[in-house]
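A reminder from the course coordinator: this example appears on the midterm review sheet, so study it carefully.

Given structure:
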């Protein structure tokens, strides 16, 4: 049985962790290096750093933040935010990331996934998808870019289905509708995406505890990601892993 991964996410802005609901009303949630170090001690399998202001500001993710977090961690780090090509990815990986996540740039130019996998290997390339339920009566979900501010009209499930052929090695799937709400992951979205792709799927957006994570795994997720429940010390990664194990899931402890 493959171990299920539990990932802590650090949304960062100006060198600080921020967290809100549906990518808005952001509040300070601490120092990235300090929180990352805590999460590794508690048993996090990976850390994701998303520089939420990078793309809107037309820049790459903060290399200084990556270096600071990398200096205190030994577990894998994925970094997203403003990565527009091979040069940006090279800088992020050199600063200490193990993988790069791309969203807006991939929607604008899908070939970036091919460029990145050709240069660094598929294992380094994560397609990040922020998906929101359509409000036009057509059903399904559309891809959002630019930190959730731009609705693209692109069908999220279809977009995921072609990701492997383009060079992605993994999908980071965030439900915009559930982000920060603690109402649980969007299980229908997870199930639809998992059925559409052969890539590992990281479920993100809406977790309030281990019960929601068990549901996400049952829906087809290979890993689960959470942020606010960790930042606000609602519960620890140790506790969640213990509950996941009790539910019959294989986890690294």
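Designed residues:
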């Amino acid at each position: 049985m493959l171990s299920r991964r539990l990932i802590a996410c650090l949304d960062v802005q100006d060198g600080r962790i921020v967290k809100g609901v549906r990518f808005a009303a952001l509040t300070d949630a601490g120092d990235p290096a300090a929180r990352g170090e805590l999460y590794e001690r508690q048993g996090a399998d990976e850390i994701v750093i998303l520089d939420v202001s990078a793309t809107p500001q037309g820049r790459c993710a903060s290399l200084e933040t990556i270096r600071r977090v990398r200096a205190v961690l030994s577990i894998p780090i994925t970094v997203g935010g403003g990565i527009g090509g091979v040069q940006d990815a090279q800088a992020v990986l050199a600063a200490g990331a193990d993988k790069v996540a791309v969203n807006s740039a991939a929607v604008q130019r899908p070939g970036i996934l091919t460029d990145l996998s050709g240069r660094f290997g598929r294992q380094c390339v994560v397609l990040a998808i922020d998906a929101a339920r359509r409000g036009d009566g057509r059903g399904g979900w559309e891809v959002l870019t630019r930190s959730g501010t731009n609705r693209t009209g692109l069908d999220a499930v279809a977009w995921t289905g072609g990701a492997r052929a383009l060079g992605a090695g993994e999908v980071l799937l965030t439900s915009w509708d559930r982000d920060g709400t603690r109402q649980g992951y969007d299980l229908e979205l997870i199930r639809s995406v998992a059925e559409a792709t052969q890539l590992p799927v990281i479920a993100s957006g809406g977790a309030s505890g281990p019960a929601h994570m068990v549901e996400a795994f049952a829906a087809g997720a290979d890993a689960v990601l959470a942020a606010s429940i960790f930042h606000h010390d609602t519960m620890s990664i140790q506790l969640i892993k213990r509950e996941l194990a009790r539910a019959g899931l294989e986890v690294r402890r």
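The longest strand covers residues 5-13. The first helix runs from residue 32 to 42.
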